[in-house]
Write a structure and sequence with these properties.
Layout lengths: L2 E7 L2 E6 L10 E10 L2 H9 L1 E2 L2 E2 L4 E2 L3 E9 L11 E4 L2 E2 L5 H4 L10 E2 L12 E5 L3 E3 L6 H4 L2 H14 L6 E5 L3 H12 L4 E6 L2 H8 L4 E5 L5 H8 L5 E6 L4 H5 L5 E9 L11 H6 L3 E4 L7 H10 L8 E6 L3 H10 L6 E5 L3
Helix pairs in contact: 1-11, 4-5, 4-10
This protein binds zinc ion.
Zinc ion binds next to α4.
Length: about 350
Amino acid sequence: MPTSLVLERKGELSLRDLPLEQRMGPADVRIAVRTVGICGSDVHYYTHGKIGPFVVNAPMVLGHEAAGTVVEVGAEVRHLKPGDRVCMEPGIPNPASRAAKMGIYNVDPDVTFWATPPVHGCLTPHVVHPAAYTYRLPDNVSFAEGAMVEPFAIGMQAALRARIQPGDVGMVVGAGPIGMMTALAALAGGCARVYVADLAQPKLDIIGAYPGIETINIRGIPAADAIAEATGGWGADVVFECSGAAPAILGLPKLARPGGAVVLVGMPVDPVPVDIVGLQAKELRLETVFRYANVYDRAIALIASGKVDLKPLISLTVPFADSIAAFDRAAEGRETDVKIQIELPA
Ligand SMILES: [Zn+2]
């Protein structure tokens, strides 16, 4: 039995053997996992034992941001072969579902998603996955970058929802990993420049190092004042809420230009007040994002083209044997850490 990183219960991780159901179907591939990013949700299950209605009631393998190498393909698989380097989309919809038929498989009520109880994740040596949700990495895209596709896909989904037009001014509230991914996707999606607001200067320094990104430290100036100053009082064309913070959400209408768009990406833990009249007075278009659908190919293409470089966001890479220490560090939430990745033996 393989050794996996197992969340035994809230606050308790172990590296141990856990029997996993890994039967291959004809449309599946078996993948030797190589690199896995630690996500805020993994850490939240570790520290809180639940996210909303999803409660860890039994030992669960963590991890959903993965890249690896195909080692076996099912009889019906045509586009992949053993030896291919790949990354995997962690959500598996029911292909016959109404949502999947509509192309919105991310909101399929039947979707199963890695490391969302009771579904096991990918911090284990091998996974079996539908080939349709497994994507070949171009030679110039590393495993580490491949494991960044999952969080970047959320930024891609946000950029698509925003319906960016060339030359738009973007604004991202919150410089966590998803805020950073969203800012980069918005730039790649056509924004002339993107302003990123946060109160943690180390985070702003990391994302502000990218050309086209300007930063706003809201300890020094309210985000609304800063964006007004930057846009002659007009506001940003597209605003991405990536903080999940109640005061930020209340202040969103002030950031957008009349007729602009607001995209809700961050997830507040509890319901929060929204300034509806503020939204109405500018006829703002409100969009929401839940994970992503049909963006992996685009995300990989942008990374391979060099238009999006996610490597500076990989703060630390640790060997699988040190996974628990890596989770403890991620739980510290250091302001200089964006993405911590775990590397399994080749
Ligand atoms: Zn993630």
